[in-house]
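Journal club prep — side note

Before the paper discussion, L.F. wants everyone to see what a predicted structure for a comparable chain looks like in token form. Sequence:
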Amino acid sequence: MCVDRNRNRIGAFCLITLAFLVCISCTKPIKSAPEATVVQVSKIESQGFQPVLSLEGELEAISRHELSFLVPGKLISLLVKEGDKVKKGQLLASLESSDYQEALAIAEAKLAEANDQYQRLSNMYASGSLPEADLNKIKSLRNEAEANYNLYKNKKSYTELKAALNGSISKIWARQGMTVDQGQPVLTLLNTDELVAKVGVPEKSIDFIQVGEEAMILIPSLGDTLMGKVNLINPAASRLTRTFEVEVTFPQNERIKDGMLCEVRLQELLPQSEILIPLGLVHADGDGIQYVFLAEKGVAKRRRVLLGKLVENQVVVEKGLSPGDLLILNPAIDLLDGMPVTF
């Protein structure tokens, strides 16, 4: 009897152990759902903006004159030096004028003789003792003598070079004692009463710049910042740089000099709205494809984007985003496409 009981107990124990092992082998572990990452989002909206165009340029006198004589001759007097300030009408240089003076004296004598003859013959014509044809002949000779006199009078005056305006002598091209040709530059005169900032605007931006719009001018050498206005837009591009020259006027002061370097900041007046996002939110994969993270239906979605121009610390998104998209502003380093997010 004892043996039977022990056998029964052992059998029961084996059955219980077997049933337990079967239950363990059939039970699958329950995985807990991953926790959603807390993120901050911003709804994408189209917005109008005025990107700032920053250009390197130079300050230049609004008018620059290369002064030359209208007649050839020997330069006998040079009365200014580079850097001198001059007044309108001031004598700057002169040529040897003795030849022109002698020719003028001869022309003056011939004119006096012609006038005398014309006066005598006019009296004879008035008394009826001279045909009209003879009077017209002497009248023609008198007019010719007068034209010749005026010609040499002008040539004599052309031996003096005078300032056409107030300004400063920036360059002297000739030396006293040398012979200069007609039209050969002798001096460069700058109108320093008004300078302008000149910059070259790229082709893609020129349509967004308008005459009269405000501009900021920075002069690094002086540490000055001035406000000015666009005064002129050249209608033709430079063949060398493919840029359009733009002039900006600004208030003058004595510290500002011709030739100083400057930086001009212009606002492009764009005709349409754009989508802008912070540049720091744009990522790139190993193939250089740029993307951002959006929040869609509780998960993070990686969205490829095509970028345009920079606007300070933002960038224009030309393709990939639409108004109403929720842009994740603080994506974690380990954030992956499809991971649950909440905000």
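L.F.'s comment for the group: Residues 41-49+273-342 form a domain with the conserved putative lor/sdh protein from methanococcus maripaludis s2 fold fold (CATH 2.40.420.20). Keep this in mind when we get to the figures.
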